[in-house]
Design brief:
The protein is α/β, with parallel strands linked by helices. 28% of the residues lie in helices and 19% in strands.
């Protein structure tokens, strides 16, 4: 009888019957994840899921091995107090003091290329569906036998994949980014709503780039002036904004796996949405080439925790989108109808200087997740692997400065293991992107209460 139910319902029941808590040790073994579900959004804004068979071949990779570590994440006392603080900020413009608590949880260890590569593959696979028509929700509506939601022309909305560890202790929600061929190397039917979300979340003032632009809200006040409350209200009240759907998705997954840790990942828009959801629920996040979301978090009135270091952004300097450099009426983003103007991220940042160290040109075509996998994290990575450069034998340099370091095949312990150059360590976003630890978005704009004439 149990096996006639959807996989998610089977898992929910079995979780209550057989719960195995992982040992809380400092030396944690890696977790092995497999693709279990697709998630999508119906035309009536209902979150639905479909189960993925182990033999499904539509994903580039079905099994992922991810190292983990213990981390402390500040979380509010409850979802209700977080929502109350946000409501007070929206309605009264006042901040409520929250009693944040540090919860110690298992999180991803993002200190190595291989670990980041696993998440990059998850983010990449989120762009691609299978052809299932077997969808269901976790409420009482049961099965929904229809064409794939969000994957065909006319179907618009947030979608992606759900990966679950072999012991059901941890779940990774991967959210698809913008479906624009010039951005990711492949198109998709949800480009319209993706573009709306990009322009709402990452523009300075309603995607007002030039006088010929159709803005996504009516807050522009002439010159470089923008009505502050108007732009905040427009973001909060937008019907097609993916952020509230992302909260619903998180709640659905936590209902399906009530005893599991939930992590999030995504590329581009999917990475930024993952970050906004992660700061709401205190969930670890690994995002790739995501446009900067700190301004959006403030405009959404999200209470700010003492630390957001559980959110990790990985990007490189040749990609103008996370760098906040794809701006102006002649930029590639503007030509495509996108206003990607923000540059300040939440959390911590791993930024690879591909312009200076690899000689890459700044080009929006480097934004795709496939470029990250193939050129930076994969086995044929262009990012240098050796930390030290040994002078050639017989050269003038070798005679003037004899080599005192290790040979390229000698490890840190003197063995013959190759010495691999680590990626730049994660650093607070403000230190990487700001001046004296402070990053400022839209510095050439003035935001104020221009419409209040009393």
């Amino acid at each position: 009888m149990l096996f006639n139910l959807p996989l998610a319902i089977q898992t929910l029941i079995s979780t209550f019957l057989w719960t195995a808590e992982p040992p809380l040790t400092d030396d944690l073994p890696p977790l092995t994840f497999e693709l279990r579900h697709q998630h999508a959004l119906t035309d009536t804004s209902r979150i639905v899921f479909s189960d993925v068979k182990p033999s499904a071949g539509f994903a580039q990779q079905n099994v992922y091995r991810v190292p983990r570590r213990r981390m402390k994440i500040p979380r509010p006392p409850s979802k209700e107090t977080f929502a109350a603080a946000r409501k007070m900020s929206m309605e009264q413009g006042m901040s409520m003091s929250l009693d944040w608590r540090d919860d110690e949880v298992d999180g991803p260890d993002v200190s190595t290329k291989d670990a980041l590569l696993q998440f990059a593959h998850m983010a990449f696979n989120a762009y691609y569906p299978d052809n299932t028509t077997e969808w269901y929700d976790v409420g009482d509506r049961g099965w929904d036998k229809s064409t794939p939601h969000g994957w065909l022309p006319g179907h618009d909305g947030m979608r992606g994949h759900v990966f679950v560890s072999s012991d059901n202790s941890t779940v990774v929600i991967a959210i698809k980014g913008t479906s624009a061929g010039w951005l990711v190397g492949g198109g998709g039917p949800s480009t319209g709503k993706d573009k709306l979300n990009d322009n709402l979340l990452f523009s300075c003032c309603c995607a007002r780039v030039g006088p010929t632009w159709s803005t996504v809200c009516s807050c522009y006040e002439g010159g470089y002036k923008c009505e502050q409350k108007c732009v905040q209200d427009s973001l909060v009240s937008a019907e097609d904004l993916f952020y509230p759907f992302g909260l619903n998705l998180y709640n659905n997954v936590s209902y399906m796996y009530p005893n599991a840790n939930i992590w999030l990942s995504g590329h581009s828009l999917g990475g930024a949405l993952s970050s906004l959801i992660g700061v709401t629920f205190g969930a670890p996040v690994v995002a790739f080439e995501a446009p900067a979301e700190k301004l959006a978090a403030a405009r959404l009135h999200l209470p700010s925790p003492p630390s957001t270091q559980h959110i990790t952004h990985f990007y490189h300097t040749a990609d103008p989108i996370p760098m906040g450099a794809c701006t102006g009426v002649t930029s590639t983003c503007a030509i495509g109808g996108f206003a990607m103007e923000t540059r300040c991220h939440l959390g911590q940042v791993i930024r690879l200087d591909t312009v200076q160290k690899l000689g890459w040109s700044v080009d929006v075509r480097t934004h795709g997740i496939k470029a990250v996998i193939d050129r930076l994290l994969g086995p044929d990575s262009e990012w240098p692997d050796e930390e030290d450069d040994k002078p050639e034998e017989g050269s003038i340099l070798s005679k003037l400065w004899p080599w005192t370091g290790r040979d390229k095949d000698e490890g840190d312990d003197g063995s013959n293991k190759p010495r691999i150059r680590p990626l730049p360590p994660p650093r607070p976003a403000g230190e990487v992107e700001g001046v004296d630890g402070v990053c400022t978005d839209c510095f050439n704009w003035e935001f104020g209460d221009y419409r209040n004439t009393t």
